Amino acid sequence: MAKKKQFKAESQRLLDLMINSIYTHKEIFLRELISNASDASDKLYYKALTENISGISREDLSIQIVINKDHRMLSIIDQGIGMDAKELEEHLGTIANSGSFEFKNALEKGQDDVDIIGQFGVGFYSAFMVAHKVEVISKKYGEDQAYIWESDTSDGYTVKECDYPQHGTRINLFLKENTDDENYDQYLDEYEIQRLVKKYSDYVHYPIEMDMTTSKQKEDSDEYEQVVEHKTLNSMVPLWKRPKKDITKEDYNEFYQDKFNDFNEPLKVMHNSVEGTISYDSLLFIPSKPPMNYYSQDYEKGLQLYSRGVFIMDKASDLVPEHYRFVKGLVDSQDLSLNISREMLQHDRQLKLIADKIEKRIQSELEKMLKNERETYEEFFKNFGLQLKFGIYNSYGMLKDKLQDLLLFYSANEKKLITLNEYVEAMKEEQKEIYFASGETIEKINHLPTVEMVKDKGFDILYLTDNVDEFCIQMLREYKEKAFKNINQGDLDIESEEEKKELEQVNEDNKDLLETLKEALKDQVQDVKVSSRLKTHPVCLVSGEGVSFEMEKVLSQMPDAQGVKAGRILEINPNHQIFTALQSVFDKDKEKIKDYASLLYDQALLIEGFSIDDPVGFSNKVCDLMVEANK
Ligand code: ADP
Ligand code: MG
Asked: Model pTM greater than 0.90?
């Protein structure tokens, strides 16, 4: 009888934790054992290759799963490299991996994540989450003696000699009895095992086989019989490893919809094999619609991470930059270790390299789409354009060079979305700045009094309708050395020299009138001016430099709104009859002019989409005027 040995102290503590943990993803034990079996097969295969051993081909190295309901036993059998007595002790009696410490911390912190076990390289021990006893029968390749390692976890393990016909390892799990909370019987169910293999180990590149019982109709009869078939449960070759020319659009679409639970087909598929200092395959998708929770806190970005076809992490967030967080997909690299944790990933140089390349890949795909498939790109921009604008804004403009040429804005002239480059290319020679106007909708902006004159002079205007637009543009500052100019803000400077002189003259001639208006409105406006930017409209309200009206509106909706206000300047059209009216009232009745001032200001507010302070007063004044006009 072999003497019972204690687990190394640290391993014992970890085991206790495993066994008692309320870890909800117990099912991953299967993935871990299969991945060990696959590793052991890899090792033998590698040995055969490097030592010129004949008779070992990949196809022979299958992984078998056997269910024995009578003994509540689940077995995972490989024909890999195997372990001798010493290795059984070393590998299964100790947790040599430094990751175990972090793993314990994570478990103790209650971090209940699908991946923590795989991450920390303590996979074998996960068997004890579902089994009360584990046997490992193993024969090392090239040796005659087999050994059995056995543990019921309570106080150590034994290693004994045994008979076993083949090289490789057989792991027997004696499953725990069901409890109120936990159903262990499910791991004796063929369909459940099949599901788990498909879910976690589909792309393991050895066949994972199991007997499956199905009922089949007997020939020439209505009766059914139970038939046992030996089935391969995994597909083995991942889609991303297949030659591109053999993959149809439907294959990609199906794969995407299935894997990422999207009803819609993807808008774009990017499939790449990269070889070099770091090698990887990537399969990336741009969804055609944002997921329901996309613009909320719940949405988690990231790509699935595989190492040699073995799934290691669901949402490796460092693989995609924030501004492309809509991209879904996966990366498979042989250069990454299975035992990598999220924390380690952040500092992993290899991963950074991959992430950089992925960002460039997405970038160039978008540029290509914009150039060659305008309609598709506009579709994309409708759904995810906001993300690009946020990218510029949130990075304080650092991402400007990468993202500015991917932006689209509505053009007043073209009546469709255009790029900044298209705007600048079409600019008139005398035009110095890129004009834009903001509002809730295209229609509302179109009705702004100030739009008319700018358009009339033949200048195009970009209409900004998203809240983030002006903030984004502020971060851009300029495009191709042309500054952005809000046509409702500050001085527009679009008049000819002659017009400027004329305007100065009008201002001079009406100094007293303007002063009086300004005095009447001194609590509301910074200034009252005659305007050069109005054509047929009587008045407009423009903001001073700095915060614009749209920005004021957006800012006021924020939870920590600090009451930032745009400066208000009332401009009056000197060519409008209203101006003549003002002049004559001013000559007759210095008091009356105050009512007029207030009315004009309120109108300008309404046009800008602001509410007025005293609607009743406004209404009364309008009525008075109507009555007076009909006396
Ligand atoms: P990891 O796989 O990350 O090394 P595990 O706890 O899963 O950690 O396994 C510990 C070690 O036990 C493995 O590194 C390997 O040396 C050995 N081992 C486990 N399962 C097998 C197997 N089926 N065949 C051969 N060796 C195995
Ligand atoms: Mg392992």
From this structure: no
